[in-house]
């Protein structure tokens, strides 16, 4: 949730151009439900979660101009060097004219196949650190917006940085620690 939230603030401000597909939405929503089930969510909690997820998907699609990619399904079938489960991601990136695939799952996106399409898979920590290098002031302002939009409960600067560290975003967290007064 926290990484998605931060990336959405950045994408909606046009710090970068985000792209995703209905299949990518389906994948992250399945993972959210799976995690909540593992944590023992009740049927009522899962039903409420399903409603929240649908609202989040709609909000995401409306918040970022031209983010939702369509028409990639046939291309996905031809990407035989990429795992079957991840072909839809590469195909959506190609059709959406993306340059990067931001993912923790780097091993499933072969460099050889991606390079054919001028694509690269990049870890979220590297991606966020690159954004900070390109426009540190705007990046910090967006981090502040993200952090302060959490109201129940509010998140302190130190807690926010700790959350990012738990998400394996250590380099970006180090950048934020050096700029605490701005977030």
Question: What does this molecule look like?
Answer:
With 183 residues, the chain is mostly helical. It has two domains: 16-120, no CATH class; 126-182, no CATH class. The protein is 62% helix and 5% strand. It has helices at 2-12, 22-38, 43-63, 73-78, 87-95, 111-116, 124-134, 136-149, 157-166, 170-177, and strands at 20-21, 68-69, 100-102, 120-122. Strand 3 (100-102), helix 6 (111-116) and strand 4 form a beta-alpha-beta unit. The longest helix has 21 residues, at 43-63.
What is the structure about, briefly put?
62% of the residues lie in helices and 5% in strands. It has ten helices and four strands; from the N terminus they run αβααβααβαβαααα.
Report on the biggest sheet.
Answer: 2 strands, parallel
* Beta-strand content estimate: 5-15%
Broad structural category: mainly alpha
Gap from first CA to last CA: 19 Å
> Could you give the order of strands across the largest sheet?
1-2
